[in-house]
Automatic annotation (TrEMBL):
Name recorded for this polypeptide: Solute carrier family 25 member 45
Transmembrane segments: 55-78
Intervals holding Solcar repeats: 1-83, 97-191, 199-286
An example Gene Ontology CC term for this record: mitochondrial inner membrane
Family: Belongs to the mitochondrial carrier (TC 2.A.29) family.
Matches recorded under Pfam families: Mito_carr
Keywords: Membrane, Mitochondrion, Mitochondrion inner membrane, Repeat, Transmembrane, Transmembrane helix, Transport
Membrane disposition: Multi-pass membrane protein
InterPro entries: MCP, MCP_dom_sf, MCP_transmembrane, Mitochondrial_Carrier
GO molecular function, one term: transmembrane transporter activity
Gene3D superfamilies linked to this entry: Mitochondrial carrier domain
Compartments (UniProt record): Mitochondrion inner membrane
Amino acid sequence: MPVEEFVAGWISGALGLVLGHPFDTVKVRLQTQTTYRGIVDCMVKIYRHESLLGFFKGMSFPLASIAVVNSVLFGVYSNTLLVLTATSHQERRAQPPSYTHIFLAGCTGGFLQAYCLAPFDLIKVRLQNQTEPVAQPGSPQPQYQGPVHCAASIFREEGYRGLFRGAWALMLRDTPTVGIYFITYEGLCRQYTPEGQNPSSATVLVAGGFAGIASWVAATPLDVIKSRMQMDGLRRRVYQGVLDCMVSSVRQEGLGVFFRGVTINSARAFPVNAVTFLSYEYLLRWWG
Ligand SMILES: CN(C)C(=N)NCCC[C@H](N)C(=O)O
């Protein structure tokens, strides 16, 4: 099993994460709180009330977990393709896999990385939703003092299973959309790269960016439900499950609720995934 895909997935994911976290914080707030009138209003209020640090709340755990999550994503994808097509990453330029195999390998990577991601994503969302100013003497103390305290509190109050709250919604979100992610990337790379050659940096950046947008537009409806399921149970349980959360959200807010945060998701997805794929491709070429 080639290890370099896992390491390349780790490094490229970390670069993308830091670039995209402020967008992600605004998205989570828009999806789970009703106090903001839109993206700009949310950004202004976060900056005024919580300073620049407010945009980076909840990033430390995803930064630690991205090593696992993105390396599982790219490592499982590449090695599933190796099993399905008996071709390594380098060989695939000369022997391109079918889109069916790409989609299946992407879904496999998406499902497994979602399972690894679930506890870290839950803690990220819980911390991102704390609107108290960053700890200043005399300011009101937020419920969670940090990622470790958040994990310990959830574990103490809800047990091990509490750390996987929203995990089913996360798996339903990521499994098909990561398939879309890789199909879009591979399709655009082939479209703009001469047969058998490596895509240029510009092609990788654009293909990676649009792969991010395509997959996040498709993922946004379940991304909203996932965030709400993760915030459920903070004080009292409101939803009986993913379906109940979907039905009650539509009943109260209309079908538009499923596209809450789609603009910011897309704005974030382009640069994050352009950087992720560019660093991933170059790391593998250096090691190839
Ligand atoms: C739509 N979804 C869930 C995905 N495309 N997931 C795959 C990679 C996501 C990337 N690390 C990012 O944070 O955008």
